[in-house]
Specification:
This protein is α/β, with parallel strands linked by helices. Helix content is 48%, strand content 19%. The model has no long low-confidence stretch (mean pLDDT 91).
């Protein structure tokens, strides 16, 4: 029996054009400089795919899921639904339990929202121990996790278009 081929990141990620698709980017601005870098990476990836981005800014990561749900409902009601969502932000571990609450609950709520609404979502909320780790992941010239989150959402959108 032949072994199955290993999964490829590009299976659904790079073949279908996305001209005219609307991508909602919801970002947390708690760390403005890191948020700027994450956003730059995400917007470049969305533009490279031919899609259009609309950005909503929130104070922190916990507000992202609720803001996303509000924006998705409003866009649908206006007859201009979003095709995908990218969540961006950064949570740096501090001295209290608050890190676990923010990191876990924002991620859980985003996943619940994406699955319940079947909306392609890329989660680019960094959860790190230090500012240095955040920068390594956020910098467009290094980890470029903003672009990675956008590319994940776009891959899911392409999959949805392929099978739907």
């Amino acid at each position: 029996m032949a072994s199955p081929r290993p999964p490829r990141a590009s299976d659904a990620a790079d073949t279908m054009p996305l001209a005219g698709e609307r991508v909602l980017v919801v970002e947390a601005r708690f760390y403005d400089d890191i948020a700027d870098e994450l956003l730059a990476g995400a917007l470049a990836a969305i533009k490279a795919a031919g899609a259009q981005a609309e950005v909503i800014s929130m104070p922190g990561a916990l507000e992202i899921p609720v803001a996303t749900a509000i924006a998705l409902d409003a866009a649908l009601a206006a007859g201009r639904p979003y095709d995908a969502v990218v969540a961006l932000g950064c949570v740096v571990r501090g001295e209290t339990y608050h890190f676990e609450v923010v990191a876990g609950e924002s991620s859980r709520a985003l996943m619940d929202l994406a699955v319940a609404r079947k909306v392609p979502l890329g989660n680019g909320i960094l959860t790190v121990e230090t500012d240095e780790q955040a920068w390594v992941r956020a910098r467009v010239s290094e980890g470029n996790k903003g672009a990675g989150a956008a590319e994940a959402a776009l891959a899911l959108l392409r999959l949805k278009r392929q099978v739907g």
